[in-house]
Design brief:
- The chain has about 130 residues and is mostly helical.
- It contains 6 helices and 2 strands; from the N terminus they run ααβαααβα.
- A two-stranded parallel ribbon has the order 1-2.
- Helix 2 crosses helix 3.
- About 20% of the residues are buried.
Length: about 130
């Protein structure tokens, strides 16, 4: 089975640089990568997503939280299909996958989606 570039870039076991034109699917790929990192037990507070614009940061955060929120409510087969569709494993712990949304929101200093400017502001203020 041939894996497309988006599936490869969303693999949390590799290092990937995602660069593409507007509308090419960068946000989709990066949201899938974060979801797969969380499925692989990455701590939400250790994930930092950076982008150039506030609009892109808001879109990425909205997309990721919408995806994880949907996972919390899906029947087992549909959830398994969604996880496989982003390159995850079919044998994933579905109960854990359903808890990712709450975990990403509830952890102190949880998942961050920032602009490069906002990150620089945080670093300079420290």
């Amino acid at each position: 089975m041939r894996r497309d570039a988006s599936m490869i870039a969303s693999d949390p076991d590799i290092s990937a640089w995602v660069a593409a034109n507007a509308g090419a699917g960068k946000t989709y790929t990066l949201a899938n990568r974060v979801a797969r990192l969380l499925l692989a037990d990455a701590s939400p507070q250790k994930i930092l997503c950076l982008t150039f614009t506030k609009a892109a940061a808001a879109e990425m955060q909205e997309r990721l939280f919408r995806q994880l929120g949907e996972w919390a409510m899906l029947p087992d087969e549909d959830l398994r299909d969604r996880i496989v569709a982003i390159g995850g494993e079919a044998h994933t712990d579905l109960a854990k996958a359903r808890r990712l949304f709450a975990g990403a929101l509830e952890k102190k200093g949880g998942l961050k989606v920032l602009t490069i400017y906002a990150l620089c502001q945080i670093l300079l203020s420290r």
